[in-house]
Amino acid sequence: MKNTEKSQNLLTSRGRRIAEVRKRVLHVSQEKLANQVGVKMRTIQRYESDETPVPESFYQKLSEINRFINVEWIRTGVGSLYNLTDPTSNFFLDYESIRTKVNEDDYKQKLQLAIAEINMLRAALIYKDNLLNVLVNQSVVF
User: Fold this and answer.
1) Exposure class string for 37-76: b at 16+ Cβ within 10 A, else e
2) pLDDT digits (tens, 9 = 90+) for 64-85
3) Which among 81, 77, 78, 82 has a CA at the least distance from the CA of 50?
4) Enclosing H/E stretch for 141
5) Could you report the per-residue pLDDT of 19-47, keeping only the tens digit for each?
6) What is the DSSP string of 51-84?
7) Looking at residue 88, what DSSP letter applies?
8) How far is CA 88 from CA 2, 101, 126, in A?
């Protein structure tokens, strides 16, 4: 399957977009995503195969897991996978909350979140750069 065909297929199915986010953005299994959003693994399988409607609470939990996921893209296929309307909002960790935390696991979790968000921004920049290259290569020179 060509890359353009794969991209078009992703845009036509909400379930495929959910699977794409799970695999390529969150890097988790169906089981782990199910645990994170509080549903059974079979429910995730049904969402990804478009067997059942996806409740709003699922989209809300996805955006809580990673605020750079554009849930509107998952719902409709319109726009970009990444929600970059304000990429700096709440991006930096709150220094005071980390400094006062005694629990090392909390610190590690926040650090992992920050690293994931940096990777999302990096991926978004690469995506935009690739898109710009495609547009430049397709432009007509007069």
Assistant:
1) bebeeebbbbbbeeeeebeeebbebbeebbbbbbbebbee
2) 888 888 888 899 888 878 776 6
3) 77
4) none
5) 999 998 888 999 999 999 999 999 999 99
6) -SPPPHHHHHHHHHH-TTB-HHHHHHS-S-SB--
7) T
8) 35, 24, 17
Q: CA 140 to CA 26: how far, in whole Å?
A: 38
Cα–Cα distance for residue pair 22/67, rounded to 1 Å:
14
User: CA angle at residue 23 from 39 to 58, to 5 degrees?
Assistant: 30
Q: How many C-beta atoms lie closer than 10 Å to residue 120's C-beta?
A: 20
- The parent domain of residue 53 ranges over 3-138
Looking at residue 19, its amino acid is A
What's the domain count of the chain? 1
- The residues near 31 (Cβ < 8 Å, ≥ 6 apart) are 41, 44
What is d(CA 26, CA 19) in angstroms, rounded to the nearest whole number?
10
User: Beta partners for 69?
Assistant: 82
- Is residue 128 within 8 A of residue 81, CB to CB? The reply is no
